[in-house]
């Protein structure tokens, strides 16, 4: 076993950790916040705000 | 349930239209530049040299400059429209507002396919680079590239998941290093600093155009590789602080950077490497800039260009994840795809479901498909997107002339750039057909089938009233 064999194992392990981190955070986020909040993003916010400024 | 009120004073002003959690506006023009140039610069490090194989070194230069004209038109047109339609989704959102839903659905898919395939191609390349380094450092036997390919995709997806500012600041740093490496190589090998090693006259003699003008035409296919992806700057539209200023500035600075980098790359590599070797990107010169550095005899340049190649590959994959996820997210938000994909992470303010969903797709292509096929599907999807742009800008100017909507940038000489872009796209389609006719027909067949699916099934779920968000006057003639 040379350094590169260890690096191969390291890459497998780090990939699994990063994937797991995203997955756990995803599940935690989905169970903490309501779907209405998570999918509340609307296109054109800047334009809408610009309109409001004009109106005032 | 957590008590979330992101419309409060402590948040950054999100509120109108009912947004409680939206993408974060934190980026500046430098990030836009890093996104555009970062995606593309890997094409200078590898890939463009297939154009030399198609028609010789001069053909690759002609393709470089003609593709440069094509992409200058793309950058100008994109800058004008995106500075006005400043939303995630880029060209998808433009198509939705200017042409119509079916065009928007197709453009959205072109974007997701082009970027996800390119991400997969970059991960394959990174795996290959690790194996080369392993060989150079004395590793016995073949390195298993799979863990490194997976690590590249997982690490960059994780970075994208955690926030756009860190993601594109990382891109800015590694893209700047990769670009500086090209400039330093040019200064060191061309004779500007010390002795030059260029042998253009000797290498070109008798090989000016080895396959004649048809070779020049065929070279156009890979000429795109010098600039493919610069249009990705538009995907940052909803996350830049000042879209009307930053997007045109970042995009136009990006195309200028690439025109310089592409020309210098051609000059250096064609002046050092014989065209037969340079043009064979599989068994010959896989990474021509790195090979040029090797021939310079300088260990410092060797390391610099080695890191430059790796950084350019990572920057490209990173930008592709950013862009593909924004396009997918925007389509989900409008219900062109399930609305579930339109979610934003309340803490990191990223389209986290779209980012995670595209990870396994990129992995499947990176681990299971050959590199040249993956690249070809990416190029074809990109080319279909460029063909839409002239139509888009002509309709945009006709429906909303300059005196009706204030633009952040107005591109000059309209409609000459649109007509030029359409003409060069037609030539490039023919060039692609010469080499990859089956894939071209298969790809167009695929888009026809999904268009039928969208028209007859999916469109009933689209939130039709809410999808047009720009406070524009009624289009002229309606």
Task: Offer a concise description of the structure.
Chain A is mostly helical and 56 residues long. Chain A is 80% helix and 0% strand.
Secondary structure blueprint with pairings:
The complex is a heterodimer of chains A (56) and B (478).
Chain A: H1 3-32, H2 35-38, H3 45-55
Chain B: H1 29-40, H2 42-45, H3 50-55, H4 57-82, H5 91-98, H6 101-136, H7 146-162, H8 164-189, H9 200-204, H10 212-223, H11 243-270, H12 275-278, H13 288-296, H14 299-333, H15 352-368, H16 371-399, H17 416-456
Helix pairs in contact in B: 1-8, 1-11, 1-14, 4-10, 4-11, 4-16, 4-17, 5-6, 5-16, 6-7, 6-14, 6-15, 6-16, 7-14, 7-15, 8-11, 8-13, 8-14, 10-17, 13-14, 14-15, 16-17
Low-confidence region ranges of chain B: 1-16
N/C terminus separation of chain A: 71 Å
Q: What separation lies between the terminal Cα atoms of chain B?
A: 46 Å
Count of beta strands of chain A: 0
CATH architecture annotation name of chain B: Up-down Bundle
Q: SSE order of chain A, as H and E?
A: HHH
- Measured by DSSP, the beta-strand proportion of chain A falls in under 5%
Q: Which structural class fits the helix and strand makeup of chain A?
A: mainly alpha
Structural key phrases:
heterodimer, A: 56 residues, mainly alpha, 3 helices, elongated, disordered C terminus, B: 478 residues, Amino acid/polyamine transporter I, globular, disordered N terminus
Question: Could you explain how this protein is built, in words?
Answer:
The complex is a heterodimer of chains A (56) and B (478). Chain A starts with a helix and ends with a helix. The model of chain A is unreliable at 51-56 (pLDDT under 50). Chain A is built from three helices and no strands. In chain A, 80% of the residues lie in helices and 0% in strands. Chain A is mainly α. Chain B has 478 residues and is mainly alpha-helical. Chain B has one domain: Up-down Bundle (Amino acid/polyamine transporter I), CATH 1.20.1740.10. Chain B is 66% helix and 0% strand. Chain B has 17 helices and no strands. Chain B has helices at 29-40, 42-45, 50-55, 57-82, 91-98, 101-136, 146-162, 164-189, 200-204, 212-223, 243-270, 275-278, 288-296, 299-333, 352-368, 371-399, 416-456. In chain B, α13 runs antiparallel to α14. Chain B starts with 28 loop residues before the first helix and ends in a 22-residue tail after the last helix. The model of chain B is unreliable at 1-16 (pLDDT under 50).
